């Protein structure tokens, strides 16, 4: 391996250990174990579907855009998980803290992070002030994935990039 790759792995592991082990707190345990589900399939599909079906005007359009972005964003995620079968951190790094029912599929990239970022941008486009809440919320979902021992920082970053790119592309195409 090249020195650059080794350096990147060392720093990524250091950031992962900081989030997963150094900032542990009862309050964060409660918050992260709940908020992480906002990026899960059930929540992201249900929220988008409810906006599309029950919303009116801009909210309905945002729901439809979110459903399209959510669907399209998971194509590269599925391909990358097969092409780069990276084990989850709790399976590789000793002393990783994880919580009940950890996932066992591949970690790269983070599907939860991809999902939350693909869903928020149509809402932010329709209601710009919502970005003040939705962007930090999406970042917290991404951080929760590391805190819970399920993803490395690069898994989360790539999930953020995929979700954001596909969502903004959906908005551009829709216009």
Explain what this protein looks like in three dimensions:
With 175 residues, the protein is an all-alpha fold. The chain has one domain: Vanadium-containing Chloroperoxidase, domain 1 (Up-down Bundle), CATH 1.20.144. It is 74% helix and 0% strand. The chain has 8 helices and no strands. It is globular.
Domains (count): 1
Using the 3D structure, state the CATH architecture.
Up-down Bundle
Radius of gyration: 17 Å
Shape: globular
Q: What's the CATH H-level homologous superfamily?
A: Phosphatidic acid phosphatase type 2/haloperoxidase
CATH C-level name:
Mainly Alpha
At a glance:
Keywords: Cell membrane, Hydrolase, Membrane, Transmembrane, Transmembrane helix. This protein has one domain (about 5-175): Up-down Bundle (Vanadium-containing Chloroperoxidase, domain 1).
How would you summarize the topology of this molecule?
Layout: H1 3-22, H2 26-35, H3 41-54, H4 58-83, H5 89-92, H6 111-126, H7 131-147, H8 153-174
Helix pairs in contact: 2-7, 3-4, 4-6, 4-8, 6-7, 6-8, 7-8
Characteristic key phrases:
Vanadium-containing Chloroperoxidase, domain 1; PAP2/HPO; 175 residues; cell membrane; mainly alpha; hydrolase; 74% helix
């Amino acid at each position: 391996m090249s020195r650059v790759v080794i350096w990147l792995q060392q720093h990524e592991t250091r950031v992962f250990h900081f989030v997963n082990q150094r900032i542990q707190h009862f309050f964060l345990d409660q918050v992260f174990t709940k908020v992480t589900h906002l990026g899960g399939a059930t929540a992201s599909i249900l929220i988008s579907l409810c906006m599309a079906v029950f919303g009116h005007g801009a909210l309905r359009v945002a729901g439809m855009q979110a459903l399209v972005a959510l669907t399209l964003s998971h194509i590269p995620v599925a391909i990358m998980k097969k092409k780069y079968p990276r084990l989850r951190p709790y399976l590789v790094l000793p002393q990783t803290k994880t919580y009940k029912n950890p996932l066992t599929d591949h970690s790269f990239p983070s599907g939860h992070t991809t999902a939350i970022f693909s869903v928020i941008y149509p809402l932010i486009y329709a209601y710009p002030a919502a970005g003040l809440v939705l962007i930090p919320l999406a970042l917290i979902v991404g951080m929760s994935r590391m805190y819970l021992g399920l993803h490395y920082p690069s898994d989360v970053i790539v999930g953020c990039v995929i979700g954001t790119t596909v969502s903004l592309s959906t908005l551009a195409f829709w216009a």
